């Protein structure tokens, strides 16, 4: 029995796989196994009753020992087997491809504008989308009974705050906070109570710009606008100013871009050769005063780029409703090739 025990210990050391351990169990404890047949092959006739008893006890001990040790080896080989099968990598299997996201066309247009303006020394600032009536209207020279409010009806919250109707709301915020001189753009989301159709949305983007310094004139405004637009469209552009009314600028203009498709001759896209693009003007003295700036010392210009409109022109998008559709297939079309 001692020999069998030693032999078993040796065999257990060299059995590594589950199959080998199972074979050991059969060899030792199976119906025809070494331990099972030990009693059968022993001639008890020569044993005294005490010797028989001792033999029985020893045999039981050996059986228990073998059962325990082999049982433990089975467990071990199983968990090893599981681990190694988990670690197995099939290098020839096709990968689980990751889907790359893509930037929204408005985001791409915004990032491009931010880059260009930063190159000209403008800061990029972001104001709140939930705004007070004061910054959105009053500070911009639009009192409660002013007809200009009709064109910018919006969503009113229960606490009397509103969803901003234009990024111009950042003008007085910025003047109050940074004073003059200042040069900044404010890209962001705006909201209006609009009936949605191919060219109107209740949620859209603008990029406001503001420059206040000493001796700022319309010439500075035109120069900055021309430079920016040439960069955006990647070619020299022609612009013209027409008078336009906005309560927070004086004088106020509509800046038109000479049509890039027909070169100004007139075509179905532009009509008369010009595309109405950016409302702008010289900052109204009242607005400067609201910002704590002395209009006798400083002057400035402001402009409001329709970011959504610009993105639609740049990427040839004909229906504004695609932009907020959340359809990834729409976005992906505009992703630059990697
Ligand atoms: N905030 C105006 C709008 O949303 C656009 C605008 C007009 C902005 C003239 C300006 C400006 O800065 O000078 O309709």
What keywords describe this structure?
single chain, 338 residues, alpha+beta, two-stranded antiparallel ribbon, 9 strands, 41% helix, binds 3,4-dihydroxyphenylalanine
Write up what this structure looks like.
The structure is a single chain. With 338 residues, the protein is of the alpha+beta class. Helix content is 41%, strand content 17%. The protein is built from twelve helices and nine strands. A seven-stranded mixed beta sheet has the order 1-4-5-9-8-7-6. A hairpin with a 5-residue loop joins β6 and β7 (249-258). α1 runs parallel beside α4 and α2 runs antiparallel to α4 (49-87). The longest helix has 39 residues, at 49-87. The protein is rod-shaped. The mean pLDDT is 91. Bound molecules: 3,4-dihydroxyphenylalanine. 3,4-dihydroxyphenylalanine binds next to β7, β8 and β9.
Beta strand count:
9
What is the string of helix and strand elements?
A: HHHHHEEHHEHEEHEEEHEHH
Could you estimate the helical fraction of the residues in percent?
Answer: 40-55%
- What small molecules does this complex bind? 3,4-dihydroxyphenylalanine
Shape: rod-shaped
Cα distance spanning the termini: 74 Å
Main sheet: strands, sense, barrel: 7 strands, mixed
Radius of gyration: 42 Å
| Strand arrangement in the largest pleated sheet | 1-4-5-9-8-7-6
**Total of DSSP H or I helical runs spanning 4+ residues:** 12
- pLDDT < 50 stretches: none
Q: Name the beta content range.
A: 15-25%
What would the average pLDDT be, to the nearest integer? Answer: 91
